[in-house]
Amino acid sequence: MSRPTLLQLYLVSQYEVRLPATPMRSVLRIAQPLPPALRAWLGDAAGCAFITAYNPYSQLRDAADNRRAQRRLVEQVQAAGARCLPGAGRVPGQPWREPSLLVAGLDLPALDRLADEHGQNAVVTAGASGPVRLRLYGDGWGAEHAEFIELAG
């Protein structure tokens, strides 16, 4: 799949997060504010990121390999002293779902290292204020970048 096509899918995807101690879910959407329940969960953290270890470079991978990589990501996040909530990325109206994590307490360099190690094209980032943003890795996205899209350096 081309990067411009992937970019469009990332922009329309919904990034669902399971909230602690409740059956409720909260949804991050690119260019929208962080939902109030997630702002409350952030506490005094500067921001959060939605990341996965599934399907590196958007190439389908064996389910067992995906689960192993995701467990490794959880271990790395916890070892860094960050907090996380389980989540899943999905495209509305499509069967695709990708298990993910919402992480608070990682700085951008640490986030970028994890995204690189796990072969991710993009992560979703948000602060307590401002819009949810898409952070892209690599070249060739072929799109004008709106204020809610950033290229990792």
From TrEMBL:
Domain of life: Bacteria
Name of this chain's protein: DUF3293 domain-containing protein
Taxonomic source organism: Tahibacter harae
